[in-house]
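User: Can you predict the 3D structure for this chain?
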Amino acid sequence: IKLTASDGVSSDDFGYSVAIDGATVVVGAWYDADNGSMSGSAYVFLTTDGGTTYDEVAKLTASDGAYGDNFGVSVAIDGDTVVVGAEQTYSEGPGAAYVYRTTDGWSTHTEIKLTASDGASEDLFGHSVAIDGETVLVGAYEADPVPRDSGSAYVFRTSDGGATYPQVAKLTAADAAAFDEFGHSVAIDGGIIVAGAPYDSGGSVYVFSPPAPTVQPTPRPTWTFQPTPQPTVSPKPTTPQPSTAALGSDSATRAGGTLATALLAFAATALAL
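Assistant: Here is the predicted structure, written as structure tokens:
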């Protein structure tokens, strides 16, 4: 099966990037000119007949797209969420990534724009993108965290169903060197992140694991002693009478509950001396 854009022209570079999840295919056309020369676009195709045919169901463009954005240089998909990178090579901006979510098979969709918290001109943020569940990963291989063009990757995560994607981490190579281009490629699965640095000597790949959960020590119980008022002792009767003695009437209270000693009652006959 060959897929083509319904409005494609020869200079669009349709197919520059591709991604698939289940019955949905996403294709980037980073030179499409809907919002100016080389502004870029991405197309969504869906099969409903087991792969016999794939219908074009949506064309995605950045709501703020402009000349040289290169939207569609990278694409990724997970379920009903698509991520599209716009590295802004020719506009010389810092780059961006866009997250699209749908609940109706791409008849309608929402758009969230992601940018690096410390982005700078020509970082090429968005050259690579990846998504797994609620986490989005974006590479910026010409970012300059220390050496020139050593590269970075940024992690974004939503906790509100896709309404927002705050940046939660920035990743760099521990042994970063100039022109390594860390973040040229990125991938994520189950919290494990992989970032490629093709020009680190003969090339390297870095694997990042999520931090182990912090185990909080159980607080030591705090005890407070609450004495029970002493009973009033009556004068000893001159004739035998039944009497009661209470033992273990003190109680202690601990955080989270009350610990009380058993109260034992003894009935006895007091004898006059």
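Residues 194 and 207 are 5 Å apart (CA to CA). The radius of gyration is 34 Å.
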